[in-house]
Amino acid sequence: MPSPSPPPPPVLPISEHEDVIVAAVDANPVVVVIGETGSGKSTQLSQILHRRGYTRRGAIAVTQPRRVAAVSVSRRVAQELGVPLGDEVGYAIRFEDRTSERTCIKYLTDGVLLRESLSNPELRQYSVIILDEAHERSLNTDILLGLMKRLIKDRASDLKVLITSATLDGLKVSKFFSGCPVLNIPGTLFPVEKFYSTERPTNYIESSLRTAIDIHAKEPPGDVLIFMTGKDDIDKMVSKLEERIQNLEEGSCIDALVLPLHGSLPPELQVRVFAPAPPNCRRFIVATNVAETSLTVDGVVFVIDCGYVKQRQYNPSSGMYSLDVVQISRVQADQRAGRAGRTRPGKCYRLYPISIYQNEFLEATVPEIQRSSLAGSVLYLKSLNLPDINILKFDFLDPPSRESLEDALRQLYLIDAIDENGEITDVGRVMAELPLEPSLSRTLIEANELGCLSQALTVASILSAEITLRSASKDMDGKRKRQELPDGSGWGDHIQLLQIFESWDQSGYDPRWCSDHDLQVRSMKLSKDVRNQLCQIIKKIAKGSTDVHARKSRKSDPDYRKLRRALCVGYGNQLAERMLHHNGYHTVGYRSQLVQVHPSSVLEGDEYGKFPMYVIYHELICTTRPYMRNICAVEQAWVEPILKKLEKLDVNKLSGGSSAPKDSELLVENKQVNSLKKDMDVKQSEVDSKIQAARERYLARKGKK
DNA sequence: GAGCACTGC
Length: 705
Prior knowledge:
Layout: H1 18-27, E1 30-35, H2 41-51, E2 59-64, H3 67-81, E3 89-93, E4 96-98, E5 105-109, H4 110-119, E6 126-131, H5 139-154, E7 160-165, H6 170-176, E8 182-185, E9 192-196, H7 204-218, E10 223-227, H8 231-247, E11 255-261, H9 267-270, E12 281-287, E13 300-305, E14 308-315, E15 320-327, H10 330-338, E16 346-350, H11 354-360, H12 375-383, H13 402-414, H14 426-433, H15 438-450, H16 453-464, H17 493-506, H18 511-516, H19 521-538, H20 553-556, H21 561-570, E17 575-578, E18 585-588, E19 594-597, E20 614-622, E21 626-634, H22 636-648, H23 651-654, H24 664-682, H25 684-704
Parallel strand pairs: 1-7, 1-8, 2-5, 2-6, 3-5, 6-7, 9-16, 10-12, 10-13, 11-12, 13-16, 15-20, 19-21
Antiparallel strand pairs: 3-4, 14-15, 17-18, 17-20, 18-19, 20-21
The structure holds one DNA strand of 9 nucleotides.
């Protein structure tokens, strides 16, 4: 029978330190709390401060980097306090606010707290702000850290900030907050014994395979968690491991079950790892980084760590992203090892020598703020109107490079979010209100002026949900063939995405329509939610309908000229010009790059197979080559104003410095581009034949029609 | 003709 009273709060290590914690918080505006997994910091700190009266003059906010964590931790705390969720204890995440006027302990994602501070920069509703899991150093957490440093000065006596983390370098954070106290709370993790390889394996799949089989043959029951870098490696590993296990002598080992685990796995397959292992069976979970922090798999006693991770990085000098396999950090390695010690003492097999761990691994992972494009964050900070703020001197725990900040300023200037002196514009203020990348928010504003808002809302939503289209041609043979998707009418990928969403809308948002077209229902639903949220925000200034099928749009503008024009303004910082003689492009801007149209693009060439002279792109991604991904054709006349702005661009003025000589580097860069262009023209014959082939395909298509 | 680690407003 279920007991009517809530379960008693568990005795966690943190409870024994209650007096110390409260004394430290009473006496200091900022306190750092280092607590390992199982210390109870996420659930107990807020309750302790609530008990001690800190909620009398404001609520306690606890930020989490992930939505699921905000929901599950708040649910736990409500349960422990014996109150319904949404009353005294609640949570707020995007699309969902379960708080009320009575809420005094509020769990929220750090992104939501940043949004709140946009309309209420002093965050007066809170008496305490706890930044949890700060060691993960998400972009948003880092910005909050900088803002908190300013806030405690402004709100001197009455705001309390706690920075809590599992492994954060406490001394560094303490220095950042002018020597605030650091409290260490032990966790409840069991010891994990670590084993190192004598050298780096040449093939770490083979090496982890051997280790896994070894564990299976010699070690007592307990699940094995294997960290790999990506889906391909995981799939290989899973099939090889199954094969080897089958080849083992019958009766020599207990049963085994091999399960893959990564983010792109459909949810129904992901949840398999949460089901308990069948009796007398060892599970092998082959996973990416999801298993490092986001998902916790119960029953793991052995960890195999290849020592690598796939990381997305942004290069501010080229504006290009790349996805690289890099060495993990010591913090990451320890986090992975810790996954073996949750239920009993465990073992971690590291496929690298201890010398590499000690001498080659970085202490901590490079924080996201040093690996991302900062246009959105810089715009956000500018919109807060902080007094005497110089973005280049903003006090970050780990400042991004000057180059990266200047890159952000240049981008913002080109899309009118800041003026030539670096001051935020009226357009920029509206942009900052929208939960979108700057290019997309600028597109919305322009679309509103041009009368194609409803289309732009759709494009922005679907792009921010990162819908991926799988190519249709491959799965011809055999099973269910995917139904044809719209083709963007030749104008490019943005238009195709718009058409896709409109078709889905016409199907009455039927999930089957998504699966018939090989689209993930999950991400399509997300884009619908995003669209609704954007409509809510923009309705104050909307000049036309925001309905998906605003009546006249298609008929009066069959070539999507208005929308493409809005996109051209929005993506003024992501513009490319085609080479004179072939289908390569060079980006237009501070530093010109040679790039190509991504093969997945639906952009069409003209009757000679030539692509349009100008296109805008959503993203530059360097894989085997530098590619533009998600492209839309624009017209030369629309590009002129951007080229004019580029001429005037002076980054010294943008960054608030005194006037200095103009970017002389730009001229040098342009010369380099010209010489590269020549270099590419040498291979003209090669290119010509490709153009010829494209032309033939084009004519063949025309013939069919 | 390519290939996608993970989050979040």
